[in-house]
């Protein structure tokens, strides 16, 4: 490392990011989670990645670069071979008459610098980039799955797949899965069709076809997956579920496999549960500084309830895991009941729901209460019994974190009352409600701006929104992605959350006791400074993070 932990602590103390209390908490967090100082600082939302990078670069007296904000030509990135780049956390990002510009997590690695200078016969200018930023830039090395598939067959000497006997099925499966991992894919669909078979990746919430192959390969690929998941290879007419673990460069990749019989054969869907997703923080998800302060204040309480709401796929699980990671210290006993357990958290007691053994959310929650817990995570409040036990746990000195399926934050309150929870119990236990959606981020590599008229915006947004954010403007500067190889020509790469954070203040507690509907509660919350999800989305459009089309897509509104 180019900088020691003591040096970094000293730097961050001088710029008032850390104080004695935060230092002690961070060291405890590092020891409990067995991670480094920089990762601990980021996971606890004490500093943003770019701010951390600037501080270290200034100390090292080298220029700082944020790779996520620049366009890197493919031929430049490949100056450093992928294997070397991953080993040394280094990436070439620019080349001009003056030489090569090299981003490094360790600018003191003179051997690598000299090696690249010798290889290119050009001077090398070193810049500092954070480890996380460099790892995120490794997507530049990725290959199109269709091209990679053809290369595998070519390397195996196969010209005619119809006649080939030694098809490298294991390598094909590994290629499909590892490519998905490095491309930040959430799900892989492998499905037979009338003619041929197709592989589709769910990338940033959208399914995209990435590979087609002859149908005669399909059964062999499914058999390979069944072997990896230890499922029955002779069963083709019943659904099967299993788990797979494979090794990747920076750790292990866990996958959930689901196989179902359809008319054309067997279809497989794999959910990727990558360990690197566990390091995502609420700041990474796009939560504003004001909302983050509210959430931090809430989870620092020793009792009460934190609810995360939204539809399936809105990022609720990631948000509550982010909260649990911050709370996960040796002085606290954290127990969860989940269905399924998506990510393993070291030091947390995680229970998998098992209906066959009568281990439901409700029965598991009862058992947890006899385990002397400080913090309880209930994967989802689905029924009256679970809601009743969770609320009583929050009332008796436990911090309860859970999810609920409602459209917005305020609707969660009457929803609990509909589950036969007394209003006085709801008002006295719920600390905060986080409602969210995930929107796609505009690809930084092909981002461009354009002008849109207020008349166009008025077609989809209410007069109140227009007045608040675009008052007296005739046109608005907006952004979009034109499409490139990096974003699969979609114009988007990655996702970010839009949030609505409702704190239960004294006034809102009174409204709950009076059984007011969600509209009244929203009005009061807005008076107290709550930002609606739509408004948070508009802010991200103005900042050039996402587009108007994305905000409308996820909020599902015709006139808002």
Structure write-up:
38% of the residues lie in helices and 24% in strands. The protein has 560 residues and is of the alpha/beta class. The protein folds into three domains: 5-137, Type II secretion system, protein E, N-terminal domain (GMP Synthetase, Chain A, domain 3, 2-Layer Sandwich); 142-276, Beta-Lactamase (2-Layer Sandwich), CATH 3.30.450.90; 280-438 and 497-532, P-loop containing nucleotide triphosphate hydrolases (Rossmann fold), CATH 3.40.50.300. A hairpin with a 4-residue loop joins strand 4 and strand 5. Helix 10 (169-182) crosses helix 11 (218-228). The chain is globular. The chain starts with a helix and ends in a 5-residue tail after the last helix.
Short description:
With 560 residues, the protein is an alpha/beta fold. It has 23 helices and 18 strands.
Supply database-style keywords.
560 residues, alpha/beta, GMP Synthetase, Chain A, domain 3, Beta-Lactamase, Rossmann fold, seven-stranded mixed β-sheet, six-stranded antiparallel β-sheet, 23 helices
* Biggest sheet overview: 7 strands, mixed
Number of helices, counting only DSSP H or I runs of 4 residues or more: 23
Over the alpha carbons, how many angstroms does the gyration radius reach?
25 Å
| Low confidence ranges | none
Mean pLDDT: 90
Percent range for β-strand residues: 15-25%
Q: What's the end-to-end separation, in Å?
A: 51 Å
Q: What would CATH call the homologous superfamily of the largest domain?
A: P-loop containing nucleotide triphosphate hydrolases
